[in-house]
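Example 270.
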Amino acid sequence: MEFKDIQCKSCMTKSKLTDYVINPYTGCMHGCKYCYAVFIKRFQDIKAQWGDFVYAKANCSELLRKELEKNKPGHIWMSSVTDCYQPIEGKLLLTRKVLETIAKSPHKNKFTMDILTKSSLVKRDFDLIKELNADLGMSVNTLNGNAARIIEPLASSPLERIKTLKEAKEKGIHVYGFISPVLPGITNLAEIFEALQFCEYVWVELLNTRRACLERLMPVIRKEFPDAVKSFDFVINHPEEYYNGIKKEVEMLGKKYKLRVQEIVRHDKD
Ligand code: SF4
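Predicted structure in complex with iron/sulfur cluster:
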């Protein structure tokens, strides 16, 4: 694993996904096989494999102080292209420093916030998440621990993630589920909806079928989940039909478990 400290030019960045994103790290140790953030490697000319490098933005919270003052009000999402609670955060505390900086800022009321992770390390920061009135989400795409270990090698197990979310809710934090990505032939939406029914809402994100994502993911699927290959082929070749089927299922499950579905997120093909 390649670690290094880097200096970034900004901490809060404007995003198409929401108003602002904060990514305290470049790269992610969780190394999920389907991760769409692999495009970062191309932009920054990084040779290491996704999951094998983490660059810590050491000056992140220092820049944030001024950005909170000068930026327009809006929503902040942590994080869009990294997991802000990946294992190295336990040592470096960059995410905690970001949350502390926002909590101390006289401008904090200009912003709403949500945090999305796959790590139970987030428990460490429940105090600040509560203080900031931020929503906390966990990504889950299977409840099968063995499958998760293959496709999301260093993330917390799915059951640990759900337990962490329940603990957050008990502390009065607003919690949501992020069912992402729906892996054809692997993700069982019915059992995940049932497990997440205590959440305030869920997002459902479909698989990103861009070439860079599939190039990493498909060898793993062929080797470890051969029975799912046909389902993947269907999704890749019949995206509309697939989407309509998922939409129907999600609507039915949302009603059954009285769980608000925020959105079904789709990605354009390249
Ligand atoms: S946790 Fe998120 S950012 Fe990290 S590898 Fe997995 S999908 Fe990518």
